[in-house]
Amino acid sequence: MHGRCALGANNTSPTPLIGGMASKVSQFVKEVVNFSSQYGTHGSRSYTAANLAGGFNIYDGYGDRTEAFVLRTYGHWWETCPSAPRIFRNSEQFRSQDFVEVRYEVPVVPVAIDIYETYHPGAVVRILACNTNLSVDKRKRHPGEVEWVTLFSGPTQCSNIARSRKFSPPIKTIDFPTNLLRLEFNSGDCGYYTELDGVELHGYIKEGMQEFRDRATDFKLSVTNQLLRMLSLSNRQISVGDDDDDDERLGYFSMLPDEIIQYIFKFLDLKSLCNASQVCSIFLKNAYDPMLYKELNLQPFWNTVDDIALAGLSARCGNMFSVNLSWTGGGGQVTEPSLCRQLYTYIHVNL
Is 231 exposed, middle or buried (0-12, 13-18, 19+ CB in 10 A)? Predict the structure, then answer.
């Protein structure tokens, strides 16, 4: 890799802000840590993801260049061919087909991201930032867990205009520093292969941010615990009513046979089923029916699937014969023993 950290707009030193509390930094990719596909072969320098490391070399030129990062597919031909895997029960909001994860040298709070696209631009549909500096409470409950926060999400912007583009989408404001970004692509509307030359991250370094946030979190937890104790004392004087009228609160759904409710539920994706199970007891019973989980697509939820999530689904997967685990398990979220236990219950697995 040819990566170097570029500080400032023109390889200058960081710009100090008022009071010296933070410095603005602009930097290019130091290394590529993960990706779903690339046109080039492993170990080659042509058309590979490793070409994203370092500053841009092609922009603002336009054309097919071996020094760029190129995805393996474009258009819809590969989805319609006989050998294409069937996509089942996919979330309508999940449009991503490929991804690349890039690491920077200096963790910063992002304020802008520039993506240098040099051939058939417009395939970027989502950008996420990784938060490894979780709050004290989250670290205690889930040791080693990371959090992915969406900075940008939007439709493809593919066009037939033959010129390069510096794509600078509006990004969500976050309060934590990061040096790991994930770009997700959908090249279905592109007329040919999309090529990227570099990804530049702009942000602020904040000294002592994690220590300040941990102290604030501890204070918040202390206040919350005191309020809960006060509520617990006051609740002793409150008489809880009977649940005899529970059936009345369920409305007409209590009059429907389970077969009708399950027929309706089979049109829901996994997230909708989980939400429905929290509505009432009837929905809970039917949303956990194993017949609804014959096919399961976990790819849209790659950032939330871990050992706990797999264990929670195991009780519903007695009749499962197909599960899509693509992109899941990154960063040790899914351990080998947990995955092996689940595979015993699956007949067909798409990794």
Answer: exposed
Backbone angles phi and psi of 333, in degrees to 5? -65, -35
Q: Give the tens place of pLDDT for each residue, 27-77.
A: 999 999 999 999 998 888 899 999 999 999 999 899 999 999 999 888 777
What's the average model confidence in pLDDT over 5-27?
Answer: 54
Among 173, 188, 209, the domain-final residue is: 209
d(CA 175, CA 111): 11
Per-residue pLDDT tens for 124-179?
Answer: 999 999 998 765 455 444 555 688 999 999 999 988 788 999 999 999 999 899 99
Number of compact structural domains in the chain:
2
Say how far residue 242 (Cα) sits from the centre of its chain: 43
**Rounded Cα gap, residues 252 and 72, in angstroms:** 51
Distance CA 137, CA 229 (A): 18
Question: 263 and 205 in one domain?
Answer: no
C-alpha span between 181 and 129 (Å, rounded)? 5
Q: What is the CATH number of the domain that holds 65?
A: 2.60.120.260
Q: Is residue 214 domain-resident? A: no
Q: Which two tokens stand for residue 235?
A: 């609740």
Residues 195 and 118 in one domain: yes
Q: Say how far apart CA 109 and CA 113 lie, in whole Å.
A: 11
List the domain range (segments joined by +) for residue 28: 15-209
Residue 221 is assigned to a structural domain of this protein:
no
| Residues 202 and 314 both lie in one domain | no
- Vertex 186 angle, CA 180 and 188, to 5°: 165
